Here is the input.
Amino acid sequence: MGFMGYRRQNDMVGVRNYVLVLSTVSCANGVVNAIGRELPEVRAVTHTEGCGRGVADVGISMRTLTGLGKNPNVAAVLLVGLGCEFIKAPAMAEAISATGKPVEYLVIQENGGSQNTTRKGIEIAKKFLDHANSLKREECGWDEITIGLECGGSDAMSGVTANPTVGATADWLVGQGGTAILSETTEMIGTTEILARRAASPEIAEKIRELIKKQENLAEIHLGPFKNVAISPGNMDGGLTNIVEKSLGCIIKGGTTTIKEVVDYAVEPTEKGLIIMDTPGSDIFSLTGMAAAGTQIMIFTTGRGSPVGFPIVPVIKIATNKGLFEKMNDDMDVNAGRILEGVSIENASKDLNVLLARVAEGEMTKAEANRQDVLSIQTVGPAF
Amino acid sequence: MQANVIVIHRKDNVAVAMREIEAGEAIVGVESKELKAGADIPPSHKVALTSIPKGEPVIKYGESIGLADESIRPGDWVHTHNIKPEEG
Here is the structure.
């Protein structure tokens, strides 16, 4: 049995039906926000990139922003650019329109400044809202769903209650023909050979080794004496003996199936099944990379209590313990602490699958209700 | 009796304490027979379910997290004091 979703022109399936108003450069954020204030039902999304960066970062930003526009949760896209920036709105509009969805762009320097551009933008966005409202949900299959997996603000119970539950759900989805993305390369350190053994081919195993090695080197260079935060005294007090055990508790949320592909940040997988994406462990960068790869739903476990969501993708929040679930109840969707009261991981996962279906069909997550719409694009070099 | 440990993977030879377990207290939540804590086990720490001879893997999540640095008995507290990394 599937679920009711929005089938897009390119046959991809959305679980939401948003009109996205997106800046292509941070200089256009003011206009995007002005359109968003006038039309709160659009997703007005801003960021800090688009210009003043090196070649590699421009490439990542272009790919990420284009991917957000292509995400099947989005019914139509209005891009707002400035005019003199590195990343050009017309080129991005063309790339997104390959999906067949309605895309338009406005360039502030060519449209009479901020107020005139805002006025034009409101007209276009209203037209797009009418279009989106005319679309109906239809029967879709779980093989058309990609979930993104995340853990943030972890505690000693993350790897015991919430992450194994999510892993069982990832296994279920992959069994249905769907796709699960395991991200956060930093949190794979120590488990290189365990993951490599699960790769679908020797080439994929080698990619996994390279990826984790690269991240270890980066941690060494940039964190220096702090690189040991990977396994801190606090972790050890919590019962984690070493980095292998800690990372196993993170990667268990990807489940146990074969790793079918390794993709770069914000790159859409070409395979179905379990995918590894190279992202930072930092939650919001990671969510953004997975959303840009076409993820329709995220599952996010937290022990200390992270409230973050994502502008165009529902994020299901799983508290690892009952105390957090009660203390931050308006941010938490699921209490995995029930496992400490005798509920099996298997049954907790079955309940999560039911919630996943309800969210796929439109039930708002707590992060959506709170409009916890945050986005950060990964960068690898300095600003110029 | 309510379980006081959780076994994450069926291959595991350690379980995770769900609350503080005192030395001598019964380990509840595993299939095996009579098992008593050989030491105080702090919450979320590991307790051995079987004998783990010195040099044999300590298994959690169905994977080795390191080798026993001494002979570990069922019910023992398992942590940095009796696990060493697998590779040299």
About this structure: The radius of gyration of chain B is 12 Å. The CA atoms of residues 57 and 67 of chain B lie 4 Å apart.
